């Protein structure tokens, strides 16, 4: 069946360039192309600033390097997660109690032929690209190598590169946001049309953890959204660390806006992980209640039966009670202990990374001050 029809989140059915080129394997794998994307943007800037004789300033701009590299890693992570959607849903669908192949094929075809997909995609990407380019022209002062204090010729050339790259990065952010929107919409339809309470049979032991791949898929998207936090962490650790004259820390001042940004980022990560799988929680609760009610009816029938063999009656009752206990212990989230540890680590990553980066900055400042 997977050879007949598949979800195509990266091989879209509407005119598009970046997602088709970077998101699919060709002569080069999508991994290499995505990681090279950010590096290429940076190297183009190095070439341009070399022509304008400002490459020494450009090379010292570490935030710009980090920003470009992070864009490549983020794009790779989101594409990797998108490639896991089809095998994950296929695996889960095969495990359903009343799996209907024809119904699943129709579901996939409707998703792939969504008439509004192209419209929403271009709204996300073009609007995001326009906003970033306008901000880079009128709002952001920009790095040192695009300052108005430079000669007019150097400023125009460097500024043009800066605006173009900002527009490209804005377009990339639009791609990521649109694919997240696609993922959320897809999972919502999947839980309404394919994975329903009637499709789950918790009485059969092997069916207990079949939804865990959905939790793993959600984790991959959350990881992709965690990567850009590196930029915020770098900004906080370098701009708001105060070192005293003697190399001893006097105070670490973090603006309230940055604290708000970190907590907002945490909330976004929580939403990215839990929102797509939230309905699975209610479905599992419903399926669990149905299964327990069914088992309770069997227990009542056994107790009220008039079997003469009491030993056989007790054995049957014990087996049914064991089944009930197992169903009662079934998690109502598609999450196992290993996944809980992983998602907790991901959610705490911005905070731990911030602490580590500040401590590293302190160490470097103190070390350099001793020379």
Rounded to the nearest angstrom, the distance between the terminal CA atoms is 67 Å
Order of helices and strands: HHHHHHHHHHEEHHHH
Label the overall shape: elongated
Question: How would a crystallographer describe the biggest sheet?
Answer: 2 strands, antiparallel
| Helix/strand structural class | mainly alpha
* Percent of residues in β-strands: under 5%
- The largest sheet has its strands arranged as 1-2
Low-confidence stretches: 242-252
Q: Got a strand count?
A: 2
Rounded to the nearest angstrom, the radius of gyration is 27 Å
Helix content: over 70%
Mean pLDDT: 83
**Count of helix runs:** 14
Output the keywords.
371 residues; mainly alpha; two-stranded antiparallel sheet; elongated
Give an account of the 3D structure.
- By secondary structure, the chain is an all-alpha fold.
- The protein has a domain at 1-208.
- 72% of the residues lie in helices and 2% in strands.
- It has 14 helices and two strands.
- Strands 1-2 form a two-stranded antiparallel sheet.
- β1 and β2 form a beta hairpin.
């Amino acid at each position: 069946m997977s050879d007949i029809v598949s979800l195509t989140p990266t091989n879209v059915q509407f005119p598009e360039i970046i997602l088709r080129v970077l998101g699919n394997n060709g002569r080069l794998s999508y991994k290499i192309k995505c990681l090279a994307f950010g590096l290429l943007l940076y190297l183009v800037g190095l070439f341009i600033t070399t022509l304008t004789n400002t490459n020494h300033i450009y090379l010292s701009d570490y935030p710009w390097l980090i920003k470009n590299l992070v864009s490549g890693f983020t794009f790779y992570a989101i594409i990797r997660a998108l490639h896991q959607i089809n095998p994950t849903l296929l695996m889960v669908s095969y495990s359903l109690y009343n799996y209907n192949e024809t119904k699943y094929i129709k579901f996939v075809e409707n998703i792939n032929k969504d008439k509004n997909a192209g419209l929403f995609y271009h709204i996300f990407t073009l609007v995001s690209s326009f906003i970033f380019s306008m901000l880079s022209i009128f709002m952001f002062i920009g790095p040192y190598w695009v300052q108005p204090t430079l000669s007019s010729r150097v400023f125009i050339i460097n500024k043009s590169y800066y605006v173009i790259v900002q527009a490209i990065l804005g377009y990339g952010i639009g791609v990521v946001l649109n694919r997240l929107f696609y993922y959320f919409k897809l999972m919502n339809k999947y839980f309404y049309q394919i994975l329903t309470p009637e499709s789950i049979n918790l009485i059969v032991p092997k069916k207990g953890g079949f939804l865990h791949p959905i939790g793993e898929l959600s984790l991959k998207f959350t990881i992709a959204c965690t990567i850009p936090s590196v930029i915020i962490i770098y900004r906080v650790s370098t701009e708001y660390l105060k070192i005293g004259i003697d190399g001893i820390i006097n105070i670490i001042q973090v603006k309230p806006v940055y604290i708000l940004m970190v907590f907002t980022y945490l909330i976004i990560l929580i939403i990215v992980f839990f929102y797509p799988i939230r309905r699975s929680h209610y479905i599992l609760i419903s399926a669990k209640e149905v299964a327990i009610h069914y088992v309770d009816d069997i227990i009542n029938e056994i107790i009220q039966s008039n079997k003469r063999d009491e030993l056989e009656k007790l054995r049957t009752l014990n087996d049914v009670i064991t089944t009930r206990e197992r169903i009662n212990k079934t998690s109502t989230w598609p999450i196992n202990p290993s996944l809980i540890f992983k998602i907790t680590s991901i959610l705490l990553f911005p905070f731990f990374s911030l602490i580590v980066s500040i401590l590293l900055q302190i160490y470097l400042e103190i070390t350099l001050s001793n020379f």
